Amino acid sequence: MSKSNQQVVVITGATAGIGRHAAEYLSERGYRVIATGRNPAILAEIAQKSGGKVDTVRLDVTSEESIAAAVREVDRLTEGHGADVLVNNAGYGMAAPLAELTDADLRKQFDTNVFGLMAVTRAFVPQMMQRRAGRIINISSIGGRITFPMFGAYHGSKYAVEALSDCLRMELRPFGIRVSLVE
């Protein structure tokens, strides 16, 4: 299958863990994967290890400029087609007692896990809406359904991802865009 007729899957936070494994798995199964992340050295390693099967793009989900540049690069790589599938995987978990977290700590957790997810989604959805087809996969956690001490900031962010995903699913369905949530 040539790159021009493969489904394009853009994965955020693809430099480690679930994102990296998903990039490798999907590229091995014939999808055109564009792995994104903040670390250029790891992105270069991913591209090299894939033998050119995985494209990489630098993306910091907390930066409007970085998101806009990533969308332009994905458009360039796909000759204006954009993403068929967006996997919102970028995120992290902060462990600390809520009563001891600063507002800056709490905002940083939500900036990446919630606001970053929505900013990237808003950036890639217009082309899906035009095609009346697409899929958004939001990576959440069982931590979006139950809570444990010391992880309140993380749980709060993942509860938000759950609610946003449910709403996006209903709002985007009329445009042929499916929204899935992985816990």
Explain how this protein is built:
Strand 2, helix 2 (40-49) and strand 3 (54-58) form a beta-alpha-beta unit. With 183 residues, the protein is of the alpha/beta class. It is 47% helix and 17% strand. The chain is globular and about 50 Å long. Strands 3-2-1-4-5-6 form a six-stranded parallel β-sheet, with helices on both faces. The chain has helices at residues 17-28, 40-49, 64-77, 103-131, 152-172; strands spanning 8-11, 32-37, 54-58, 85-88, 134-139, 177-182. The longest helix is centred in the middle third of the chain and has 29 residues, at 103-131.
Short description:
With 183 residues, this protein is α/β, with parallel strands linked by helices. The chain has helices spanning 17-28, 40-49, 64-77, 103-131, 152-172, and strands spanning 8-11, 32-37, 54-58, 85-88, 134-139, 177-182.
SSE topology sketch:
Blueprint lengths: L7 E4 L5 H12 L3 E6 L2 H10 L4 E5 L5 H14 L7 E4 L14 H29 L2 E6 L12 H21 L4 E6 L1
Parallel strand pairs: 1-2, 1-4, 2-3, 4-5, 5-6
Helix pairs in contact: 3-4, 4-5
The overall pLDDT, averaged over residues, is 96
Give unreliable regions as ranges: none
Structural class, from helix and strand content? alpha/beta
Order of helices and strands: EHEHEHEHEHE
Q: Which sheet architecture does the biggest sheet show?
A: 6 strands, parallel
Widest beta sheet: strand line-up: 3-2-1-4-5-6
Helix content: 40-55%
Percentage of β-strand residues: 15-25%
Shape: globular
Radius of gyration: 16 Å
Strand runs, count = 6
Distance between the termini: 32 Å
Helix segment tally: 5
